[in-house]
Amino acid sequence: MAQIFTKIGYRFLLGTIFLTASQTFSQIDPAVSNRLNGFMRENCTTTFNEISSTPVENILKYKVFHIVQETQNMYGEKKKNINEFIVIDTGQKVASFERVQANTSLPELTDYIREDFILDQESAHEFQSLLDYIYPIEDWKPDHREYFQKNGKWYFLRDAYFRTKQGFEVTVDIQGRITDICYKMKWNDSESK
């Protein structure tokens, strides 16, 4: 019995040493860390700009930001690599908007909509503008934007792929409050104008 406890104790001790040693060896020397941080400061810049527009302020509960991250002098190249992000600050956390792929339900976007926003003929253009800010259409894509209402739902066409319409389907209640938003890759003929 004592031999079993000795083996367990021995294995526990070895495991503890292994975990501690691997964490100790993975620590970066402060001098190296300073050099790496200096390299990043010299070659990377990040800017944050609030998207302050009437559609964002009238439709969303929270502020939206455009982040641009530029990286240069990588691998001896003089060109800059630019990454851009559109994010929302909920007051608790900063989050990117949900990614649209195939048929995608967008519950977070639905939750970001102000409770007092009413989607109707007068505000549909403003909602289309909001989508332009938070889900911009790529420069290389043809501009197929249009919107219409049919059967209690709004459709905001953003793109066309092999002659099929793609865009946002927005469900509203009787008062016009948004209850659901999804992105659809293909609309049925009955859903089109």
Keywords:
single chain; 193 residues; alpha+beta; five-stranded antiparallel β-sheet; four-stranded antiparallel β-sheet; 5 helices; 9 strands; 32% helix
What do these coordinates show?
This protein is α+β, with helices and mostly antiparallel strands. It has helices spanning about 1-25, 30-45, 55-60, 105-110, 125-135, and strands at about 45-50, 65-70, 80-90, 95, 105, 145-150, 155-160, 165-170, 180-185. The chain has a 5-stranded antiparallel beta sheet. The longest helix is centred in the first third of the chain and has 24 residues, at about 1-25. The mean pLDDT is about 80.
| Beta-strand segment tally | 9
Helix/strand/pairing category: alpha+beta
Helix content: 25-40%
What characteristic shape results from the CA principal axes?
elongated
Strand composition percent: 25-35%
> Helix-strand pattern, N to C?
HHEHEEEEHHEEEE
Mean pLDDT: 82
Biggest sheet features: 5 strands, antiparallel
First CA to last CA: what distance? 81 Å
The Rg value, from CA coordinates, equals 26 Å
Give me the number of helical elements: 5
Low-confidence stretches: none
Total separate domains: 1
Strand order, largest beta sheet: 5-9-8-7-6
